[in-house]
UniProtKB/TrEMBL annotation:
Name of the protein: Helix-turn-helix transcriptional regulator
Matches recorded under Gene3D superfamilies: 3.30.450.180, lambda repressor-like DNA-binding domains (1.10.260.40)
Residues annotated as domain HTH cro/C1-type: 38-86
Membrane-crossing segments per the record: none
Top-level lineage group: Bacteria
Amino acid sequence: MSGDNWSRQELARFLRSRRARVMPEQVGLPTGGGRRTKGLRREEVAVLAGLSPTWYTYLEQGRDIKPSVQVLDSLARVLDLSEDERRYIHTLVHGQVTNPQPLDGPAWSGEVMGPLVGLMNDSEYPVYATDIHCNLTAWNRACTEWYDDWAGYCPEHRNMLRWLLVSPKAKERLPDWERVTTDVVARWRSELAKWPHDEGLTARVAEFARISPLFATLWRRHDVQEHRTITRRFRHPKRGLHTLRMALLVTPDEPMIGLVIHFPVPA
């Protein structure tokens, strides 16, 4: 069995199992009338999801059709899927998750990420947490030496990309400032494609274009680059020019929060 065929059959089996789990009263349907089907009927799922009953039947039969992201999310709503289950059907159909939401568990930006950065407070190298908006949500003491004292900024200006664009300290600490900024904008643009419904991101783009001609120019270029481990040069006030390697760690629990860790480049 080919990979595509297996995915279609697995999606069909999964949808049938989730449909059997949803009781009619959960979606406002009557429970009487000699109902023999456990859970919802196929045509009921189709109508509630705004689909053709025949088309949905084909889907449960594993036919060679490919539902859109919107259709999958509509089915997830009707079948009361958890975020784990919603991600699963997206992966089966498209090979990746679109617009992932936080999984059940601690809030990484508060309950976990802050204490995790705190554990690295004695490190001589920077560690910081940032969200999809580039907001800096936590950082260790070393960041004040290698980057800046972000605690001195008002909360709405504690943003890595904004800092790069407007802070004189960014040009002072980063000898390759323009290349770094170009790289961050390209990586941010690539990341934004995963969150098409986040209006806050659209507002951030407009804000950055308003305060920075460089950002406006870079944004019009449409350069994109995926996140990867990179090196960055710093002009440290005591150590002078120094190169560090940077790695981004992201947890599936909270895909909008990332931990950026700096460490020495091996000799």
